[in-house]
Amino acid sequence: MTSVNLPPEVPEDIEPGDAVRPGRPVHVARYTLAARINHWITAISLVVLALSGMALFTPRLFFLTGLFGGGQWTRTLHPWIGVVLFCSFAILFVRFWRANLPARVDVTWLAHANDLLAGREEKMPEVGKYNAGQKGVFWAMSALIIVLIVSGIAMWDQYFYDLTTIPQKRVAILVHAMAAVVIICVWIIHVYAAIWVKGTIGAMTRGEVTGGWAWRHHRKWLRELVSRKPRAPAE
Amino acid sequence: MFPPIPNPSVSPEAAKPRFGEKDILRRSASEVTPPAERLTEVAKLIDVSKCIGCKACQSACLEWNNLHEEIGFNHGVYTNPMDLTPDTFTLMRFTEWVNPETDNLEWLIRKDGCMHCEDPGCLKACPSPGAIVQYSNGIVDFQHENCIGCGYCIKGCPFNIPRISKVDHTAYKCTLCSDRVAVGQGPACQKACPTQAIVFGTKQEMKDWADFRIKDLKSRGFENAGLYDPQGVGGTHVMYVLHHADQPSIYANLPDNPRISPIVDAWKGVTKYVGLAAMGFAAAAGLLHYVVAGPNRVTAEDEENAQKLTEGKGPPSAPPPASPSGPAGHEGRAT
């Protein structure tokens, strides 16, 4: 009996704090308070960085420097906020990387991506806590933030002028601009997905979603949480 | 001898600036209508073959521009300080070069500083409107009240000239004494030069004078003597007469073929347009999708199924029957 009742290894896409709260409707805890604070510090940093970076990217948006107290302040603040973003995202990475590891179902999910966009979600395979799209956003953000911090330090002349040569700085600045464009596009996809899929934003504000939302979008994760529940007291 | 520029007249008429806002040809991060009539282009000609390395130009520059260079260290060479700084707009660079043809040691002395390019890379790279301007007489000038200290000009410059001050965090370089030129005077360095190694006038006058000097040098055996007015940056308003014009880089790494780096061009050109288009496209695609496909809402049925699942009653399709990925969905662990 004991061997049968041994709790199975926790599926890798269940994160600490994830839990089902039965009721009508069912609520599912998706993000802890710490994870949400962590997320919003990252999010605010990214938005501030995008605004200040775009101000220096194209003269047409230079007026955005007014939001930060002028050009000198924009130039001063941007890299420091970049450091905040990097540190904050590093913690977020530690929280989320396991659940974002690629799974076999991701391939099937991606193959049906057009069904999702067309609103035929019933044709999608059941996925865990994150679908392939969310995983893509996570890994793209991770890679781009590394590229941005490295190229950013190479062009942070106030403190790191002597670290690189001028030809290297030129490459850094081009790479920084291109990576920034891509990360803003990834951010747009991320934000759009949260707006389009109703009931999602609550996951990052109140920390929970409804059971219906989990059933519809992350059924495997919901099943895992439900099947895990009764085993907990048996231990 | 090149006719020296006369001392300024004391009449109030002569004190009126001869160029200003209305003569701006290019302005950083801005679109300007070029003036209908271009001023006569000016130029400074530095005849390296006549330079005696006295550094009078360096001192005159400090004095006229009221700059205070830090007292540094002697590194065993005449070059002092060792590089341009926010306070040293011009610097005598000394090179000891052994001519492989004659086996003679040649002491090459080049007065380094802003070249006032016709196509200025600093201005092209600058993100701040009006921080760098180019007057129609060819002078490229930094306007410190608009400078944000980002250092993009450093990346844009093919000659490694601008320096950012650690005091006021703005970029500094030679102004070609735009304040002096505006009232009909030559730059301070030119005024101080005791050998006429530096002369100043219209660009045409300087080219003509350079021709005369090059002929003289050639007659003395410097057969590669020539003018350094690099076309890769559209020509410059500071030019050199070099006795070895076939190899500019022997003069303390004067670029052989300076041009704005293609990386800078790509960054300020195609990246900007493609980048803005990509971001605009992403946003527009999202909006369009929302309008066409509508929001993705959780249905009452979804909620019911979730309730059945949690209450252990089992929803209609408990194990996914037609799951294409099979039952082992969550495997794929990397560890």
Automatic annotation (TrEMBL), chain A:
Residues passing through the membrane, by range: 40-57, 77-97, 137-156, 171-197
Residue ranges of every copy of the Cytochrome b561 bacterial/Ni-hydrogenase domain listed in the record: 30-207
The UniProt record lists the keyword Signal: no
GO CC annotation terms, alphabetical: formate dehydrogenase complex; plasma membrane
Example GO biological process: formate oxidation
Cofactor list: heme
Protein keywords: Cell membrane, Electron transport, Heme, Iron, Membrane, Metal-binding, Transmembrane, Transmembrane helix, Transport
GO molecular function list: electron transfer activity; formate dehydrogenase (NAD+) activity; formate dehydrogenase (quinone) activity; iron ion binding
Compartments, record wording: Cell membrane
Primary subcellular site in the record, as a coarse category: membrane
InterPro entries given in the database record: Cyt_b561_bac/Ni-Hgenase, Di-haem_cyt_TM, FDH_cytochrome_b556_subunit, Formate_DH_gsu, Ni-dep_Hydgase_cyt-B
UniProt membrane topology term: Multi-pass membrane protein
Keyword match Endoplasmic reticulum: no
Record family assignment: Belongs to the formate dehydrogenase gamma subunit family. Belongs to the HupC/HyaC/HydC family.
Protein name (database record): Formate dehydrogenase subunit gamma
From TrEMBL, chain B:
Annotated [4Fe-4S] cluster 4 binding sites: 126, 147, 150, 153
One GO term of the biological process aspect: cellular respiration
Listed InterPro entries: 4Fe4S_Fe-S-bd, 4Fe4S_Fe_S_CS, FDH_Electron_Transfer_Unit, Formate_DH_bsu_Proteobacteria, Formate_DH_C_sf, Formate_DH_Fe-S_su, Formate_DH_TM
Signal peptide positions (record): none
Record note on cofactor: Binds 4 [4Fe-4S] clusters per subunit.
UniProt binding sites for [4Fe-4S] cluster 1: 51, 54, 57, 193
Region (Disordered): 301-335
Protein's cellular compartments: Cell membrane
PANTHER family per UniProt: FORMATE DEHYDROGENASE, NITRATE-INDUCIBLE, IRON-SULFUR SUBUNIT
PROSITE patterns named among the record's database cross-references: 4FE4S_FER_1, 4FE4S_FER_2
Pfam families: Fer4_11 (PF13247), Fer4_4 (PF12800), Form-deh_trans (PF09163)
Domain named 4Fe-4S ferredoxin-type: residues: 42-72, 105-137, 138-167
Organism annotation: Ancylobacter tetraedralis
Keyword list, A-Z: 4Fe-4S, Cell membrane, Electron transport, Iron, Iron-sulfur, Membrane, Metal-binding, Repeat, Transmembrane, Transport
CC cofactor: [4Fe-4S] cluster
Chain residues that bind [4Fe-4S] cluster 2: 61, 174, 177, 189
Principal cellular location given in the protein's record: membrane
GO cellular component: plasma membrane
Organism superkingdom: Bacteria
Protein name in the entry: Formate dehydrogenase iron-sulfur subunit
GO function term, MF aspect, one: metal ion binding
Binding of [4Fe-4S] cluster 3, residues: 114, 117, 122, 157
